[in-house]
Amino acid sequence: MDNYALVLNAGSSSLKFCVFQRPHNGAWQLASRGQIGGIGTSPKLSVKDSVGAVLADNNLDASVKDGRSAIDALASWLRSEYGNARVVGVGHRVVHGGAHYHRPVVVTRDVLVQLYELIPLAPLHQPYNLAAIERIMERMPDVPQVACFDTSFHSSNPAVAKLIPLPTDLRKTGLQRYGFHGLSYEYIASVLPHVAPEIAAGRVIVAHLGSGASLCALNNGISMDCTLGFTALDGLCMGTRPGALDPGVVLYLYQGLGLSAKEIESILYKKSGLLGISGISNDMRDLLVTDQPEARLAIDYFVYRAAKEVGSMAAVLGGVDGLVFTAGIGENSPEIRSRICKASSWLGIELDDPSNLKNGPRISTPGSKVSTWVIPTNEELMIARHTGALLGLLQAVA
Fold first, then answer.
1. What phi and psi values does residue 47 have, to the nearest 5 degrees?
2. Is 300 annotated in the active site?
3. What is the DSSP letter of 153?
4. For the domain 3-149, what is the CATH superfamily, name and number?
5. What burial class does residue 251 get, using C-beta atoms within 10 Å of its C-beta: 0-12 exposed, 13-18 middle, 19+ buried?
6. What pTM does this model have?
7. Are 94 and 117 a contacting pair, CB within 8 Å?
8. pLDDT for position 79
9. Which residue out of 150, 234, 321, 352 is catalytically annotated?
């Protein structure tokens, strides 16, 4: 009987997954990757095999309305595709590990209890990450699961970078800067020696630009700082989140305008950022194809904040040897990359326009003092590596 291992990245409206298969006495290999999107509205299953051939592209029943039912739909497809193959392990992306979890961990009920306590720090992600773990526990109680945290990679940040300057008694409750997108940054750090060896051991700024956006300062592949902090609201402007915000604004919303805590939470997590500025969309692709002034303002602000924080990360590192773009916008938008690079040209970045239009991998000129790159991220592969290391699986995963 063949064995397989799953990697799951569960969100509010999508369930991304990878299947790693091991034929009898064979090596582990990626068998398929896909997602169930449109959960709760128009659910659809899309799956491709390891070379990109379509395995499924199906609309699903409207009963797939939440993460639990999405897991059930995935299980049904797995049975139809892989027959009686046995699931021997499941790895999960979990956004917040708090101050306690500095590395991936095998999930137990005690671990789950601690992770549920962190939901207020990542309300857009944590509940859905944990719901997937719970459903797997119910369906396959004997299958071990591994939680891989987006915060863990930043545990190497120096104390001064983690500090939130509030009274000590408050900080002791867990108030510190954690940083996020760690699985993405860890993957980029792992491939730099192969893709861009000349900067791998140097000072590198990685720009993870997508619906969620942040920058990370790497020194010899180790995280020194991240623009995201205590929650995933800090730093850059994002799809629906504002990024860095004067805390007095929140006080004004509460005290001056009389909004409730729930209303403010909804504004900060779901109604701000690109969507809030433009009033049109939280998707950069939509904003780039319209000439409406509100859309242009949203793009201008996104670029302004990113370039401003590039300068901040350069200061943290004491200079910069490389800049890497990754994630949805970073990998696919030549215009946004070009504008950020031009705004950061004072650092010595010289963009090669033809290479940038082709999405790299190197998009800077040979004479650029700061070599600049586009490197696709792969959080699922990072999760697979961690899951394999903890469970003794997936040794052959590259």
1. -140, 140
2. no
3. G
4. ATPase, nucleotide binding domain (3.30.420.40)
5. exposed
6. 0.91
7. no
8. 87
9. 150
